[in-house]
Design goal:
This protein is of the alpha+beta class. It has two domains: about 40 residues, no CATH class; about 70 residues, 2-Layer Sandwich (Ribosomal Protein L30, Chain: A), CATH 3.30.1390.10. It has six helices and three strands. The protein has a three-stranded antiparallel beta sheet, covered by helices on one side. Helix 4 crosses helix 5 and helix 4 runs antiparallel to helix 6. The chain is rod-shaped, with a radius of gyration of 33 Å. The chain starts with a helix and ends with a strand.
């Protein structure tokens, strides 16, 4: 190992230009490229990242967590969104975790959430 230490010591004395010339000389002599492993790792990482596309959720459930203090207003909104009768809408408003709408588009879910929250309900999109 003493020879290795001497070699490291000698290489440390090289200027940047001399080190670059040494790299070129070793690449030619051994038929390799010092940049190849780095490029392969970078290319492999990019390929792995693009191989798994993130799927965007397209269907949402509008879940009423709590009717809040204005239960009557929330019941009115539930009836407007679902065309349920008064008794069914009231039962839904009183049931924590009730699905007001199932498998609806992003815009419809956001609109329903906004209306229910404006009426005083606590809503979650699932």
């Amino acid at each position: 190992m003493a020879d290795m230490d001497k070699l490291v010591e000698e290489l440390s004395k090289l200027s940047v230009l001399e080190a670059a010339e040494l790299v070129k000389a070793l690449e030619e002599k051994w038929g390799v490229s010092a940049a190849a492993p780095v490029a392969m790792v970078a290319a492999g990482g990019a390929a792995a990242a693009s191989a798994e596309p993130v799927e965007e959720k397209t269907e949402f459930d509008v879940v009423l967590k709590d009717a809040g203090p204005k239960k009557i207003e929330v019941i009115k909104v539930i009836r407007a969104l679902t065309n349920l009768g008064l008794v069914e809408a009231k039962t839904m408003a009183e049931t924590a975790g009730a699905k007001v709408l199932s498998a609806v588009g992003k815009e419809a879910a956001a609109d329903a959430k906004k209306k229910l929250e404006e009426a005083g309900g606590v809503v979650e999109l699932a």
